[in-house]
Amino acid sequence: MIELPEAAVLAKQIGKAATGKRIKKVAAAKSPHKFAWYYGDPKEYHGLLVGKAIGTAASYGGLVEIPVSDATLLFGDGVNLRYYETEEAIPEKHQLWIEFEDRSSLVGSVQMYGGLWAFPVGSLDNKYYKMAKEKIPPLSDAFNGTHFDSLFCEKTNKLSLKAFLATQQRIPGLGNGVLQDILFNAKMHPKRKINTLSSKDKKELLDSLKLTLTQMVAGGGRDTETDLHGKHGGYKTVLSRNTVNKPCLVCGTIIKKEAYMGGSIYFCPTCQKI
Ligand SMILES: [Zn+2]
Q1: Which residues, by Cβ under 5 Å, contact ligand 1, an ion?
Q2: Residue 80 pairs with which residues in a beta bridge?
Q3: Which has the closest alpha carbon to 237: 183, 164, 162?
Q4: What is the pLDDT of residues 37-73, one digit of tens each?
Q5: Which residue of 39, 99, 116, 263 is surrounded by the most CB atoms within 10 Å?
Q6: Which of 112, 97, 121, 272 minimizes the C-alpha distance to 186?
Q7: Averaged over 159-165, what is the pLDDT?
Q8: Residue 63 alpha carbon to ligand 1 centre in Å
Q9: Which of 122, 86, 119 is nearest to 105 (CA)?
């Protein structure tokens, strides 16, 4: 799943690979997929985009946005985005294929679910898109202690750390993937309740959030995900499916996996206390 680090890396890579390229052909929904979401009728994507040039891609939370003249391309967190130099390399199944005049392509495919939206600028009415664009990005200076404190309220007191960090889009781009290492670095268990956090704990959590996300972006995304060129990210996850049942890097205790709130959590039972 694309979360903040991967979206940031993809936007940068799309910038290098495709900025300025003119669109020759668009094929949307060629391979039917129940949970691939489009804007309006995907058959109209070609007419909307053809002949227009790719602008500078940007990321908002876990979303990747590409301006295309008077239209916008937007990709959600479950989309696999790839760039191919030639047509021959393109996989048979895909949910969106954008071919440029120089024969290179941007291809989006969906495994479980994902949005591949192309729409006239400003016309997509999507709650998550709006929130991702309006909320303060966690790696910006404006996302400081005062802002972080403002996210806590009476309602959040009963929540666990996982629920607080990865639901309701409180923090854009932060999902069940990146939260694992954020909590490991903060030495906090994903099930720990918000009302047990002292001011010092909150400060440590914010520091860990910033540090962990910065490292993930700098590394080119997590090693559990792949980038625009199909390469795994260079950030080595401390807690993920890659490290479960292996010894904790800090204390040697075996890393555990549990199902919790519709997804897996990973933790070190010694380093991370409830
Ligand atoms: Zn440990």
Answers
A1: 248, 250-251, 253, 268, 270-271
A2: 109
A3: 183
A4: 999 999 999 999 999 999 999 999 999 999 999 999 9
A5: 116
A6: 272
A7: 97
A8: 33
A9: 86
Residue 222, CA distances (Å) to 2, 4, 37, 149 in order: 10, 10, 25, 28
0.90 exceeded by the pTM?
yes
The β-bridge relationship of strands 96-100 and 23-28 is antiparallel
Q: How far does residue 250's CA lie from ligand 1's centre (Å)?
A: 5
CB atoms within 10 A of CB 26: 21
- How far away, in angstroms, is 255 Cα from ligand 1 center? 8
CA-based R_g, the chain, Å:
20
Residue type, 190: P
Identify the residue whose tokens are 């993920």.
Answer: 240
Give the type of residue at 186.
A
- Ligand 1 centroid from CA 258, angstroms: 16
Write b or e for each residue in 95-127: b if 16 or more Cβ atoms lie within 10 A of its Cβ, otherwise e: bbbbbbeeebbbbbbbeeebbbbbbeeeebebe
Separation CA 107–CA 95 (nearest Å): 8
Nearest to 96 by CA among 48, 57, 59: 48
Rounded distance between C-alpha atoms, residue 227 and residue 80, angstroms: 9
What are 274's two structure tokens?
């409830």
